[in-house]
Amino acid sequence: MQTTTLYVKEATSEGPIANLESILLKTEGVERAIIDVDDGEIKVDHSEDTLSSDQLVTLIEQYGLNVTK
What we know:
Elements: E1 2-8, H1 14-25, E2 30-36, E3 41-46, H2 53-62, E4 67-68
Antiparallel strand pairs: 1-3, 1-4, 2-3
């Protein structure tokens, strides 16, 4: 299990947070996602064998969210 920390600018309000949680928790290989609403920090526990950090970023960006590391 690997923990990846990302920042999503839009993840500071309720709608985008709920959407992001839904996306992440439906993704194969994601075990847990914690979102800090103060600064948009996201910590995702995931299986590196199933989902790399780069694939995680691509997945989130496909939904129109801006990701930084």
